[in-house]
Specification:
Layout lengths: L12 H72 L14
C-alpha cells in the first residue's frame, strides 16, 4: 500500500487554506450583520428626521398664511385710508350708544 500516503500530523497548506476560507466567511458574516444593523439604525433616524421636517414644513406653511393675512389687513387699512379717507376716530369723535 505504498500508493496511499500516510497521514502526517501537523498543519499543511491545505489546512491553512481551509482555515483561511472559513475565517473569511465568518468575518464576512459578522460584517454583514453589523452593516444590516447600522442600516436599520440609520433608516430609523432618517424616518424620525422626515417627521421633524414635515412638522417644520407645516409650521412654515402656517406662518406664511399668518403673514399673508396680516399683510392683507395692513394693505386693506392703507387702501381705506388713502382711497376712502377713512381713519381711526379720536376719543372726542367716539359716541357710545346705550
Amino acid at each position: 500500500m505504498s500508493w496511499i500516503k500516510k497521514y502526517k500530523p501537523g498543519i499543511t497548506f491545505y489546512h491553512l487554506g481551509i482555515l483561511l476560507v472559513v475565517s473569511g466567511i465568518l468575518v464576512s458574516a459578522v460584517a454583514v450583520i453589523k452593516v444590516s444593523q447600522k442600516s436599520r439604525e440609520l433608516f430609523t433616524r432618517y424616518h424620525k428626521l422626515q417627521l421633524v421636517e414635515q412638522n417644520y414644513q407645516d409650521e412654515f406653511g402656517r406662518l406664511q398664511l399668518q403673514e399673508g393675512s396680516e399683510s392683507a389687513m395692513h394693505n386693506l387699512a392703507v387702501k381705506a385710508k388713502r382711497e376712502l379717507g377713512m381713519f381711526v376716530p379720536g376719543a372726542k369723535q367716539r359716541h357710545f350708544i346705550k
